[in-house]
Amino acid sequence: MRGPAVEVANLTATHQRHPAVHHVTARFEPGSLTAIVGPNGAGKTTLLRSIAGLHRIDSGRVAISGASPRLALLPQQSGMDRAFPILCLDVVMQGMWSKLGAFRSASAGDRDRAQAALEAVGLGGFARRPVGAMSAGQFQRLLFARLLVQDADLILLDEPFNAVDARTASDLLGVVRRWHGEGRTVMAVLHDMDLVREEFPHCLLLARECVASGPTAEVLSAANRLKARMMAEAWDETAPACAA
Ligand SMILES: Nc1ncnc2c1ncn2[C@@H]1O[C@H](COP(=O)(O)OP(=O)(O)OP(=O)(O)O)[C@@H](O)[C@H]1O
């Protein structure tokens, strides 16, 4: 497998007409593993959702190479409803909807695949457990199991290791490494700079605008990080979107 290249060209995306991502240009190579970093409010989630086609682009464009690349997004946990009464196995099976379509019901093989994904993230005994009865870390493992069955070429992760303990983070990082080894294109929004330096070969540093992108060690220089912080602090939250 070789994941797609992703090209972001002069992208501006707004919330209530105020720019959250401002004239960002970046390229993500096929099969690359990239961390998207920057201060709070730097536009990281908005960029990820724009790439996923879930946030309207005001100007510029996102181009994903390949005929019909499969894309999967792990949203931030804080934005998810866990009160919905659904069993863990059924959450994993949601990841198969594009293969099953609206009319085919799941086969025994599909259920076996979902069960195998649960086992791969250490939740082998959780198939019949309601999601409301899971801890935050277990729920994150469950969302990774759903990503596994999605079998996507392009995987977008929004703070995948947030609110999980070291053991869970390490297990889930193993899944990310596996995706990278399989040649999928992976991007992850992260705040842990040590983790980024150790595990992510490429990095995009955002402060609404692109501060730097490329090899992680170069991008995370002290000068670039200071620049990102100053740009974020100087940003006018009420600035209107400029003419494209
Ligand atoms: N639903 C929304 N409505 C209005 N403004 C929003 C909304 N979501 C985000 N914003 C604003 O857009 C800007 C960028 O937000 P975004 O969530 O993309 O940043 P982030 O870098 O992911 O932040 P964090 O690190 O805090 O998660 C912020 O100023 C934020 O307040």
From TrEMBL:
GO BP, sorted A to Z: zinc ion transport
UniProt key word Transport: yes
Alphabetically ordered keywords of this record: ATP-binding, Ion transport, Nucleotide-binding, Transport, Zinc, Zinc transport
Superkingdom per UniProt: Bacteria
Alphabetical list of SUPFAM superfamilies matching this protein: P-loop containing nucleoside triphosphate hydrolases
GO molecular function annotations of the record: ATP binding; ATP hydrolysis activity
Pfam family, one: ABC_tran
Gene3D superfamilies (UniProt xref): P-loop containing nucleotide triphosphate hydrolases
Residue span(s) of domain ABC transporter: 6-233
Protein's UniProt keywords contain ATP-binding: yes
Stretches assigned to coiled coil: none
Annotated PANTHER family: IRON TRANSPORT SYSTEM ATP-BINDING PROTEIN HI_0361-RELATED, METAL TRANSPORT SYSTEM ATP-BINDING PROTEIN TM_0124-RELATED
Stated family: Belongs to the ABC transporter superfamily.
Protein's UniProt name: ABC transporter ATP-binding protein
Lineage of the species this protein comes from: Bacteria, Pseudomonadati, Pseudomonadota, Alphaproteobacteria, Acetobacterales
